[in-house]
Design a protein that fits this description.
Elements lengths: L7 E8 L7 H8 L6 E8 L6 H12 L5 E5 L5 H10 L5 E6 L8 H11 L34
Parallel strand pairs: 1-2, 1-4, 2-3
């Protein structure tokens, strides 16, 4: 990615056989309540299921006007997939969203606002509330609940 003055958010979602979990995260990105600009980049990290077809269907049915880019990364692993997604981003702010994470409808506004107000921040994390759809919630790691990362 080349340095820009393009104040928007590039959402990068890396997928590997995510058909069981991908619907809600993609819809949450497409349904952002924002006046800011954003795009959705999906990295196909060797999916052998219907993940990409499901994403295309969700996107088509959403009638969204945000750009969707789907790229392939054949080397397995989220690090390779994120690097590939990063290479095609077009906005200044990049948000890596796991394929089983559902973001709030104000995520885009929050990212743009925080980075705009604090020019010295280079990376920003958030606290998350996990959803356990088919499994029991594991024991929490002591002292780690609700931590945010700002660097």
């Amino acid at each position: 990615m080349q340095p820009t003055d393009n104040k928007g958010v590039s959402f990068v979602v890396c997928c590997h056989n995510s058909e069981e979990v991908i619907e809600k995260p993609i819809k949450a990105i497409l349904e952002q309540k924002t006046t800011g600009s954003y795009e959705l980049i999906v990295v196909d990290n060797n999916c052998s299921d219907n993940t990409i077809d499901i994403i295309k269907k969700i996107y088509k049915e959403s009638h969204s006007d945000i750009p969707l880019t789907i790229v392939a990364e054949t080397r397995p692993g989220v690090s390779w997939a994120r690097k590939k997604g990063y290479e095609v981003t077009r906005f200044d702010y990049i948000s890596f969203i796991d394929d089983d994470n559902i973001i709030s409808s104000s995520w885009t506004n929050g990212v743009i606002e925080i980075f705009g107000m604090h020019q010295n921040i280079g990376i920003l994390g958030s606290s998350n509330e996990p959803l356990f759809l088919d499994t029991e919630q594991p024991a929490a790691i002591p002292g780690q609940a609700g931590k945010a990362i700002i660097a």
